[in-house]
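Reminder to self: C-alpha cells first, then the designed residues, so the page reads top to bottom the way the pipeline ran.
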C-alpha cells in the first residue's frame, strides 16, 4: 500500500519528495490501524466475560472501557 501511495503521489504531483512523504504517511497510518485492531482484540474477550457474568451489554462496555488497552 505504501508503494502504491508513493507511486501515485509521485505521478500525480511530479514531485519525488511528495511521493516519499505520501509513502511514509501511509506506513504510519497502517501501523496506527494495526495497533488499534490489536487493542480491540484484547478488549473483546474482557467484554465477553463481563457480559457472560451477568452484566448487560451497555454496562459491560462502560465497565470494561475504564480498563481498556
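Designed residues (69 positions):
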Amino acid at each position: 500500500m505504501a508503494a502504491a501511495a508513493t507511486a501515485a503521489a509521485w505521478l500525480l504531483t511530479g514531485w519525488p519528495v511528495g511521493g516519499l512523504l505520501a509513502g511514509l504517511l501511509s506506513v504510519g497510518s497502517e501501523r496506527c490501524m494495526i495497533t488499534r485492531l490489536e487493542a480491540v482484540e484484547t478488549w473483546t474477550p474482557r467484554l465477553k466475560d463481563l457480559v457472560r457474568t451477568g452484566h448487560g451489554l451497555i454496562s459491560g462496555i462502560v465497565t470494561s472501557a475504564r480498563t481498556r488497552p
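Helices lie at 2-13, 16-52, 57-65.
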